[in-house]
Amino acid sequence: MSDPFIQNEQYNLIKEQVRLVKESRMQSLPPSVLRAVIDLAQSKVIYAFPEATTEQLKLLQFSTLQTNEAFEEYMQQLQEWVQPFPVVSAEQLKDLFPKQKKLRLPELADVDFGRLTYLSWNDGRSKQKLMICQHEGRLIGIVCKPSTNTKKNICAFCNQFTDVTYCVTITKAKQAKNPDYYKAIGTYICVDSKTCNEHITSQEALHTFVHKALQV
Question: What is residue 176's predicted lDDT score, i.e. its pLDDT?
């Protein structure tokens, strides 16, 4: 039997495509159009798992489902194959931010690690947004400075139109003519990271942000 192999963002993608198929089956679409919608939805999911085994590919099949009950049962059963985000302790969080001497930690008991692509929280005292991400097989911490204003815009991570804040982080890249200068990068990110984790369907934008932040 396969071990959990679905990441949170992949589960969200499957959920999104399953919902599309379910809603399409409720409409009076021509059979050829409905077939095209189902095939495309199934292909998007399979494409997101390039290293899936034959057994895992079977678990990802939903194209033959027809009733609402079948769709709901499928998504419930799929949850047992979701690989949780690494559970971290308060001490581990502190180690990831060695320069933050008075770090305010999130309530870890309230964190659902089973539905995380990244862990993030706001430190009201330092007015910083702190992020924990997985990068090249290890956890890394990134400190961001969010803008004081929120606005409706597209979140770079989850691609949803929602309440976002412009977050800036200082990278490790230095300017050749000025070694004391460090490059800063910024992007719009969901104010509510919990909501972001519930909608993110790809790590591509997150990986790009992390890569730039760590790039020397």
Answer: 62
